[in-house]
Amino acid sequence: MEIGNEPTLETPLGPTGKPLANTLTGLLRPDPACTERNAVALPEELSPARARADFFSRWTSEARFFDEIAQQMAAELKPLDPLTVARYREPQHPWFHKEFRFQLLGNLRGKRVLDVGCGDGINATLMAKFGAHVTGVDISPGFVELCKQRAQLEGVEARAEFFCSPLETVELPAGHFDIIWGDGILHHLIPELDAVMRQLVKWAKPGALLVFSEPVSLTPWLRKLRKGVPIHTNATPDERPLEKAELSTILRHLPDLELKWFHLLGRLSSLILPTCQTYEHAPLARKLAVDMLGRVDQALLSVPRLKTLGGMCVISGRKPEPR
Ligand SMILES: C[S@@+](CC[C@H](N)C(=O)[O-])C[C@H]1O[C@@H](n2cnc3c(N)ncnc32)[C@H](O)[C@@H]1O
């Protein structure tokens, strides 16, 4: 792509060459905040033209990567497993980070939830099934289509809407959401993390809960060791675990930030549960083994000096109430 001749931030193109929709204006009743474009803070060290090209190539490669996964998942789309729905409706095993997060959410009835980087839509659909009104945003047109199909299949399409846009440019009303949820998204947005966090907090109501689950690495030698363990991970070229600097950035926006660590030994669960077998359907012995890893992790990771050995962190905080 020629610098200076690339698409603008206002008209990013998707992997098929069509413009990615950026159509949230008018989603809700007119809100003055929606009439302003969200300013994307371009990295200062890059010239504006170079930075636009940089954004564009990152968005395109992310959308292409996740579109491929979406295509496979769409071919196998089926209703959510009732055991999975029950698991997250009443989470009993907080040593699993997703159950822990659903416990944090509490009663979702009537809550407005924003799911950023909503991916395959399983989380958004679960939250809608539990009574929330969910807005999902994702850069992958394939995933957004899958989310819509899934919501329809589960009969929650009236409470779940999905939009295809880079998070960096999407327009949403200020002070609107009770909960902002992100599962594995912030570590895809590291160059813009400060600007993105500012936007997320702006879209949240005062006192709203923001909850993220992210890979975090505060121990460089452990990161190297993990890379050596032959556990398959699907990663895009632009992602990496969050480090101390990124956690400090998040802290600036959420002063009451709480970090809960997971995945020291828990990462080995995937070796106990073959990929085709979910925890819900695993034989009792395997379930108990995975539970044990999770419980041991919780004991080890509650020791202050050991916390940072965890590979996954649930990051949560509330938007400060005005004084
Ligand atoms: C690791 S996946 C997580 C998906 C989903 N939250 C889940 O838990 O299954 C990251 C998601 O972020 C989306 N994504 C990456 N960069 C994005 C951006 N700049 N704006 C919006 N979505 C983005 C990808 O398309 C992908 O669906």
From TrEMBL:
Keywords: Methyltransferase, S-adenosyl-L-methionine, Transferase. One of its GO terms (biological process) is methylation. GO terms for molecular function: S-adenosylmethionine-dependent methyltransferase activity. The keyword Signal does not apply. Residues 1-23 are annotated as: Disordered. InterPro entries: Methyltransf_11, SAM-dependent_MTases_sf. Residues 114-212 form the Methyltransferase type domain. PANTHER family: METHYLTRANSFERASE, UBIQUINONE BIOSYNTHESIS O-METHYLTRANSFERASE, MITOCHONDRIAL. This is 3-demethylubiquinol 3-O-methyltransferase.
